[in-house]
């Protein structure tokens, strides 16, 4: 389904990074390592690389990853890209300073828990997670995202899921989004910035 959606020369989500990522660009630190999960056509991973983050991107769609590679070439940055299923991705332990998940709500609660566990595992102690998505209010707005309430995030879901992290910022809000043809219009959004705790002892 996703691969067919990306089988067009147009960038379905645009080539500009998500506004969320731009607003959190202070966390993109030159020379640090970053992983962009379900990164799609590369708009976010390329922005990470442009900011000096040594960036690995993964997505399940071959067409999307080919477009991410083309975007990186066009912008003159290096990206380590991977076509891979997030559910079988090797979340190598303590490997990244930064993990970015933007609009990755294609799974329900059980698989979401697996993905969150992987993201936590692959972050280095002290590393930062940037997560951005929709809240259940998005279903009524219908301006992007899957039509499944159970896939949406709430403050409570994220607070519980990242109870073992230091939550630096968590907020739900509505605003106009224009991120390609796929995400367009007033949207119900949620942002999470969380830090993996240093291991004790
Ligand atoms: C809503 S798009 C967001 C893409 C990108 N994060 C962005 O913000 O532009 C969701 C992405 O998840 C990818 N995806 C869906 N199922 C996946 C899976 N099982 N493994 C890896 N990627 C997957 C799709 O190919 C698509 O690129």
Structure characterization notes:
The protein has 201 residues and is an alpha/beta fold. The protein has one domain: Rossmann fold, CATH 3.40.50. Helix content is 28%, strand content 31%. Strands 3-2-1-4-5-7-6 form a 7-stranded mixed beta sheet. Helix 3 (43-50) links the parallel strand 1 and strand 2 (54-59). The longest helix has 14 residues, at 62-75. The protein is globular.
How many structural domains?
Answer: 1
| CATH homologous superfamily (4th level) name | Vaccinia Virus protein VP39
Give the termini distance in whole angstroms: 47 Å
Counting DSSP H or I runs of 4 or more residues, the number of helices is 7
Classify the fold: give the CATH topology: Rossmann fold
Low-confidence stretches: none
Share in β-strands: 25-35%
Rg, nearest Å: 16 Å
CATH class: Alpha Beta
Fraction in helix: 25-40%
- Are any ligands bound, and if so which? S-adenosylmethionine
Query: Strand order, biggest sheet?
Result: 3-2-1-4-5-7-6
Q: Which structural category do the helix and sheet elements fall into?
A: alpha/beta
- Report the average pLDDT across residues: 96
Largest sheet report: 7 strands, mixed
| Helix-strand pattern | HHEHEHEEHEHHEE
CATH architecture: 3-Layer(aba) Sandwich
Shape: globular
